[in-house]
Write a structure and sequence with these properties.
about 325 residues; Rossmann fold; 6-stranded antiparallel sheet; 10 helices; 16 strands; disordered C terminus; transferase
Length: about 325
């Protein structure tokens, strides 16, 4: 098998990168220890857009995102328009896609895993022209996320202040009136505390916090949270950790191939794959089936193939025998 050519983009500003003391030299040594060659871009003085363009124009067949989910999404946005593969070194806080793909979360193990990975085509989504891989969230959640980012790296006093802000914001949050229209012509008005539009669906299961088994269903999943009081926060969080949250009474779940969200407000604040930004309304959501080629461990790909075969057998009239 031809050895892959890796071009790694390191986000040196990632909190995890700084906490672990990861540098281009340490990464190069770790790749070499596993018999892998890599070109590393760790230049914080160059704009990320320029670094991504350099990666796409390189002769590498695989671009590695070494950072958090925001870094992964930024690289994926460019890669879907190229013939490159995306690979991930989990150096963020959540590492959502890396977890979904079954990548080891230990850095050395993740590098070793790059010796035995294969391309997997997964879905990507878009809202008003902005690509996302996981979810876009509207409502009170983005405001809380913005507050969290503000105190990152500060002392205990700031963290205590954030907890007070969190309590006040949840206690006083007003519901947002929205029209939710799906591509099949269905439309409804909802008053919500938060709404999330996710690429595919999050699964239940013990400890499976925001985990997706399926990354290529071609469907958006819409999570409407009608109220979010302090008690709801703890019940939802506990339910997610325990693996039974879908039947929560304040939560409505539906699927669609496209979604339009309208409101009387001219702009809405969103949290897109962990990054908070403001967008003009209405919000137009689309999904692009199997548009991104990402490297995953062979074990995860075999499990995906086994699931697809099991679903085929379960279809009415299926015999389970090869044609």
């Amino acid at each position: 098998m031809t050895q892959r050519r890796f071009h790694l983009v390191l986000n040196v500003n990632s909190g995890t990168v700084q906490a672990l003391g990861v540098t281009s030299d340490t990464l190069r040594a770790m790749f070499a220890a596993h018999g892998l060659e890599v070109t590393i871009d760790a230049d914080p003085q160059t704009e990320l857009s320029d670094r991504i363009r350099n990666a796409i124009e390189s002769d590498a067949d695989t671009i590695i995102a070494a950072g958090g989910d925001g870094t992964v999404t930024a690289l994926a946005t460019a890669i879907i328009h190229s013939d490159k593969n995306l690979a991930i070194l989990p150096l963020g806080t959540a590492n959502l896609l890396a977890r979904d793909l079954g990548m080891p979360l230990d850095l050395d193990e993740a590098i070793e895993a790059l010796r035995d990975v294969e391309p997997l085509a997964i879905d990507v989504s878009e809202v008003n022209g902005t690509i996302f891989l996981h979810k876009a969230v509207i409502g009170v959640i983005p405001e809380l996320a913005a507050g969290r980012e503000y105190i990152r790296g500060q002392g205990m006093g700031a963290k205590i202040g954030f907890m007070r802000y969190f309590y006040r914001r949840i206690s006083r949050a007003r519901r947002l009136a929205l029209e939710i229209a799906t591509g099949d012509g269905q439309s409804r008005i909802e008053r919500v505390q938060a709404i999330a539009v996710a690429t595919n669906a999050y699964d239940e299961g013990l400890g499976r916090f925001f985990h997706r088994d399926k990354l290529d269903t071609g469907l958006l999943t819409i999570y409407v949270l009608r109220h979010l009081r302090i008690g709801d926060v703890f019940r939802l969080a506990t339910g997610m950790l325990a693996g039974h949250w879908r039947d929560y009474e304040a939560l409505d779940i539906s699927t669609a191939r496209s979604v339009t969200i309208r409101t009387k407000k001219p702009r809405l604040q969103l949290m897109i794959d962990g990054e908070v930004q403001s967008m003009e309304a209405p919000l137009e959501f689309k999904i692009y089936p199997r548009a991104l080629s990402v490297l995953a461990p062979l074990r995860a790909i075999k499990e995906e193939m086994a699931d697809e075969q099991a679903e085929a057998v379960a279809q009415p009239g299926a015999t389970g025998q090869p044609a």
